[in-house]
Structures are given as structure tokens and as C-alpha cells.
């Protein structure tokens, strides 16, 4: 599973500014969860209403999504958290991060 696959299936372009898909220690698989920061609470609520308990089309054997509110909220808080992780760890795990600023995707180092 990749960020691109999630974005394609979810169809949430233009509603978020942060998506983080953590991976296992060796980077071979995802950890089974992702972090998304939507622009508005209404967009987050709409996502929950549409996706709670649903299964992915490309992963039909997996259980349905369980969506919860994260402790950390907001683009800047999420960016600070990721920037605090050692760069070596992020590279070795091949973690995927999508950050949108001014309508364009930017790398974590520019966020």
C-alpha cells in the first residue's frame, strides 16, 4: 500500500495538507495505519462517514477501516513530530509523507 494508492482510492485531493504512512522497521510493509490532517473538521467528518468500517478495493482481505481522532492535530504539529525523527530512520523505513503547501506537494524538509 502506498500514499498514492490511498489517495486514489479515497479521492480526497484538495481536502488535506498532510498524509503520513508509517512503515515497518525494514520498510517492507505499512504498519496498518495512516495520519491525515484535513483542512476542516467538516472534511474530516465526511471522510469518517464515508470510510469508517469500509474495506479497500485493492485490499479486500483486510478488515474495514477503524478511524480515530489523533492526539496531534494540525499541519505544523504533525510536521514538527516527523522532523524530530532521525532522518536515517525515515529513509530506512521508506516512510511516505505527503505535505501540501499553497496547493503544491513539498518535501518534509521544506515544510
Helix content: 25-40%
* Arithmetic mean pLDDT: 83
Query: Count of DSSP helices?
Result: 4
With strands numbered from the N-terminus, the spatial order across the biggest sheet is 2-1-3-4
Uncertain regions: pLDDT < 50 for 5+ in a row? none
* Most strands sheet: 4 strands, antiparallel
Number-wise, the strands total 4
SSE sequence, one letter per element: HEEHHHEE
What oligomeric state do the depicted chains represent? Answer: single chain
List the helices and strands and how they pair.
Blueprint: H1 3-10, E1 16-21, E2 35-38, H2 41-51, H3 75-83, H4 87-93, E3 96-101, E4 104-106
Antiparallel strand pairs: 1-2, 1-3, 3-4
Question: What is the gist of this entry?
Answer:
This protein is α+β, with helices and mostly antiparallel strands and 111 residues long.
Characterise the protein shown here:
With 111 residues, the protein is α+β, with helices and mostly antiparallel strands. The chain is built from four helices and four strands; from the N terminus they run αββαααββ. The protein has helices at 3-10, 41-51, 75-83, 87-93, and strands at 16-21, 35-38, 96-101, 104-106. A four-stranded antiparallel beta sheet has the order 2-1-3-4. A hairpin with a 2-residue loop joins β3 (96-101) and β4 (104-106). The longest helix is centred in the middle third of the chain and has 11 residues, at 41-51. The radius of gyration is 14 Å and the shape is globular. 11% of the residues are buried.
Amino acid at each position: 500500500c502506498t500514499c498514492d494508492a490511498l489517495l486514489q482510492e479515497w479521492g480526497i485531493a484538495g481536502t488535506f495538507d498532510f498524509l503520513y504512512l508509517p512503515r515497518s522497521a525494514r520498510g517492507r510493509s505499512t504498519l496498518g495505519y495512516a495520519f491525515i490532517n484535513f483542512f476542516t473538521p467538516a472534511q474530516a467528518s465526511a471522510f469518517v462517514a464515508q470510510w469508517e468500517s469500509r474495506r479497500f478495493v485493492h485490499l479486500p482481505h483486510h478488515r474495514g477501516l477503524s478511524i480515530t481522532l489523533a492526539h496531534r492535530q494540525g499541519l505544523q504539529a504533525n510536521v514538527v513530530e516527523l522532523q524530530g525523527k532521525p532522518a536515517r530512520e525515515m529513509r530506512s523505513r521508506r516512510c511516505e509523507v505527503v505535505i501540501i503547501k499553497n496547493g503544491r506537494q513539498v518535501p518534509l524538509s521544506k515544510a
